[in-house]
UniProtKB/TrEMBL annotation:
GO terms for molecular function: GTP binding; GTPase activity. This is GPN-loop GTPase 2. PANTHER family: GPN-LOOP GTPASE 2 (PTHR21231:SF3), XPA-BINDING PROTEIN 1-RELATED (PTHR21231). GO terms for cellular component: cytoplasm. Coiled coil: none annotated. SUPFAM superfamilies: P-loop containing nucleoside triphosphate hydrolases (SSF52540).
C-alpha cells in the first residue's frame, strides 16, 4: 500500500490550485511560478488537469503522461465530465506513479494545477483521497480556490459562488484561500452594487438579499436565498482576496495569505525578517486596505468615496515593529500595548499610526 512507500524526508510546501473551468487556474500557476521564481523560490508546477490542452508554464509532471482525457472519452464512451472523473479516479489508483515523479523535485515548492470540474470538490472523493496521500508524503498544501470576480456583479451568482466556495472548503479540508480572479475585469458584465470590501469580506448578506428582492424574478425565491445566506453566515468561513495576475501587489497579497495558511512563512526555506514573521503572527495584513486598493484600481461604478463610506471607523495608516527597551520606550500612539512578545526587559511592539473619521 501507499503508506509503505519511501517518504520524502522534509516537509514540502505548495499550493493546490482549484476552481471552476475558466476561472484562471492555469494562468495563475504560470504567473505564480514566475513571481515566486523571481523571489528566489524553486518552483515545480504539476499539471493534474487532463483537460488542459495548452500548458503555458514549465511543467515538471503532466497527468497526460499517465492518462489522456480524449483516450478515456473515446475508449469508454464517456462525455467530458464523466471522463474527467474517470481520470482522477485513475490517478488515485496510480499514486505510486505520481510519487515517483514528484520525488525528483522534492527540494521545490509545488504548484498543482487541478481540474476545474466542481463535482470533484463537492461530491466525488478522488481529489480528497489524493490530497490525503500527499499529506502523508509530507506535503503541506494550501488550497487556492479561484472564482471569477464578475460573479460579484450578479447577487444570485454571488450567493452561488459563496455556496460553492464553502462546500469546497469543507470537502477539501486543507488550509484554504479563496480568490476573486480577473479583478481587472470585475465589471465587464455589469456594475457592483456595493463596495468591493463587501464582497471580499462577505459582510452582512442581508443587504444582498434586499438587493436581490428588487428583481421580480428572484422575489419568489427570497426564503430560499435567505436560508442559503444563513448557512454561509453561520459557518463564517468564506472571504476572498482580489487578484489580477498582472498586478504584482495583488500577487503579493495572495502569496502572503497562502504562506501564512500552510505555515511556509514560519519555516526555514527562505530568509525571514522579524517584520514578516510578526506580520503573519498577528494577522497585520489589513484586508480592508487591500480591498480599497483593488477598488480604486479596478472598480469604476461607485462614485461615492470609499473613505467617506467608511466614516466613523479607525484606519491603520502604517505600522512599525520594533524592540522597545527602557532607553527606547513605547511611543504614545501605541494602540495595542498588549500585542508585544515579552522577553525579559525587551518587548517587541507594534506601533500603529492611524486616523479616524468618527
Ligand atoms: N484579464 C485577466 N484575464 C485572466 C486573468 N487570469 C486568467 N485570465 C484569462 O482567463 C482565461 C481562462 O484562464 P485559464 O487559466 O485557462 O483558466 P482555467 O480553466 O481555470 O485553467 C484565459 O483567457 C486567461 O488569459 C487575470 O487575472 N486577468
Ligand atoms: Mg486550466
Amino acid at each position: 500500500m501507499m503508506s509503505e512507500e519511501p517518504r520524502p524526508p522534509t516537509v514540502i510546501f505548495g499550493q493546490m490550485v482549484i476552481g471552476p473551468p475558466g476561472s484562471g487556474k492555469t494562468t495563475y500557476c504560470m504567473a505564480m511560478q514566475e513571481f515566486l521564481s523571481k523571489l528566489g523560490r524553486k518552483v515545480a508546477v504539476v499539471n493534474l488537469d487532463p483537460a488542459n490542452d495548452l500548458i503555458p508554464y514549465q511543467c515538471c509532471v503532466d497527468i497526460a503522461e499517465l492518462v489522456k482525457l480524449d483516450d478515456v472519452m473515446d475508449g469508454l464512451g464517456l462525455g467530458p465530465n464523466g471522463g474527467l472523473i474517470y481520470c482522477m479516479e485513475y490517478l488515485e489508483a496510480n499514486l505510486d506513479w505520481l510519487l515517483s515523479k514528484l520525488e525528483r523535485f522534492k527540494d521545490c515548492y509545488f504548484l498543482f494545477d487541478c481540474p476545474g470540474q466542481v463535482e470533484l470538490y463537492t461530491h466525488n472523493c478522488s481529489v480528497r483521497n489524493i490530497l490525503a496521500q500527499l499529506a502523508k508524503w509530507n506535503f503541506r498544501l494550501t488550497a487556492v480556490h479561484l472564482v471569477d470576480s464578475h460573479y460579484c456583479t450578479d447577487p444570485a451568482k454571488f450567493i452561488s459562488i459563496l455556496c460553492t466556495s464553502l462546500s469546497t472548503m469543507l470537502q477539501v479540508e486543507l488550509p484554504h484561500v479563496n480568490i476573486l480572479s480577473k479583478i481587472d475585469l470585475i465589471e465587464q458584465f455589469g456594475k457592483l452594487a456595493f463596495n468591493l470590501d463587501y464582497y471580499t469580506e462577505v459582510l452582512d448578506l442581508s443587504y444582498l438579499l434586499d438587493h436581490l428582492a428588487k428583481d421580480p424574478f428572484f422575489k419568489n425565491f427570497r426564503q430560499l436565498n435567505k436560508k442559503l445566506v444563513e448557512v454561509i453566515e453561520d459557518y463564517s468561513l468564506v472571504s476572498f482576496i482580489p487578484l489580477n495576475v498582472q498586478d504584482k501587489e495583488t500577487m503579493k497579497h495572495v502569496m502572503k495569505a497562502v504562506d501564512k495558511a500552510n505555515g511556509y512563512c514560519f519555516g526555514d526555506s527562505e530568509k525571514r525578517t522579524l517584520e514578516a514573521m510578526m506580520s503573519a503572527a498577528v494577522g497585520a495584513d489589513f484586508q480592508f486596505s487591500m480591498s480599497m486598493d483593488a477598488q480604486e484600481k479596478y472598480v469604476k461604478s461607485i462614485e461615492k468615496d470609499v473613505e467617506e463610506e467608511a466614516a466613523g471607523n479607525w484606519f491603520i495608516e502604517s505600522y512599525q515593529i520594533c524592540v522597545c527597551t527602557e532607553e527606547h520606550p513605547t511611543p504614545e500612539n501605541v494602540l495595542d500595548p498588549g500585542g508585544g512578545v515579552e522577553s525579559q526587559r525587551e518587548v517587541v511592539c507594534i506601533h500603529f499610526k492611524g486616523w479616524s473619521n468618527a
